[in-house]
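seq as requested:
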Amino acid sequence: MTNKPKPPAVMLAGLLGYAGLAGWAWPGAAAPSVTAPENAARKNEASLGWFREAKFGLFIHWGLYAIPARGEWVMSREKIPVAKYAELAPQFNPTKFDAAAWVRVAKEAGMRYIVITAKHHDGFAMFDSATSPYNIAQATPFKRDPLKELAAACAAAGLGLGFYYSQAQDWHHPGGGFVGKPWDDVQRGDFDRYFDGLAIPQIKELLSGYGPIRILWCDTPVEMTRERAERLVAAVRATQPGTLINSRLLFHGRQISGLKPEQFALLKEVGVDYLSYRDREIPQQPQWRDWETCMTLNQSWGFNQTDQNWKSPAVLVNQLVEVASKGGNFLLNVGPTAEGEIPAPSVRHLKAVGDWLRINGEAIYGAEPSPFPPAAKGGDVPAWRCTTKPGKIYIHLLKWPSGEFKLAGVKAKVIGAHLLADARRQPLAVKQTEGSLAITLPAEPPGELVNVLCLTAPDAPP
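struct tokens:
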């Protein structure tokens, strides 16, 4: 635990009786006199270049809600009073937490970055914060900063690190926003005092004490306006200009597919870097070059002891391929237990995805989207998807063809073909006529899950 100063008006001893702090005013809560910098709308091309290369990340939802083990929205869904929920803090002692082990899980899955909940909607900070003592280092017997340990482990392993931070919705601190209405009088207050007195200062802490932060992952932007978003972006750009910010700064994920041109323009003007679609949604045709789908391994984000509905490795690889074929990033979630362990089924299924990527990763990392028209919405599941790199066309065979694979609309001259899962890289027979291509395939696929056909075409993409 680092020795950080406490807010002068708040004592740690009052944490569990937070209902008695309803009249507490945020220290130094006057709105900061900052405005978005002139270049806030400009894309950070170096950071976006990293993002496009990375493609696959680990999302981690972890907090006090792992104790009741009924998901991260348990406080809101069950309308648990603030003081009652805060009683979970002295019970939270994740002694099995091992940052290096978590990073190994991500590495073995073929992931290139991690995004973890620094503060979810329950308002509990999973780091040692000087802004509010309601955090893991000061309010629990664990007395450690897991995000500091995770940052060090990510740096040692060469993984990018991002922080999820609920910038608007907060069910613990006075004035925090809500989807719905407050259920406890101590939750009421002025949103700007919360936003400028807690949210922005904590974001600055995260961007100041944990090394390079690749992503600030915002969520549920209730009460967010252009002016508030600009204040947050200005704070980020002043601290770590290269940190990417997602669209949930201003719009809910469920809104993205239906935004109007002027709303997309607003996101760019404010300084948003990429789109975050609805939870578990893979868009039919993304509106921006840079976007991301977040997906659960089962049906839950935070640990849920009754949810054993795990997606199979085949489903996960198919989803990763679909996202990559449309140019996006795939952020796949795990919900660790209250003891600090990633559930074993999550580890097994992620390992299977990593095994596939070790063979086929060149068709995913840094790949560009398919140049072929997308399948009709609501139509049959396609038999294949496509990614490209300069001089390469990758055909991801979701269904193994019988005898020949035929492809229409190929303008580039194909001079070679092989299957990535074939260790010998045996050349395959290619027949090409004007606008069409036929590849002779072996009777049986050489690999498991999705087999990838690599076409060498100097003038690709077609």
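Confidence is low (pLDDT under 50) at residues 1-41.
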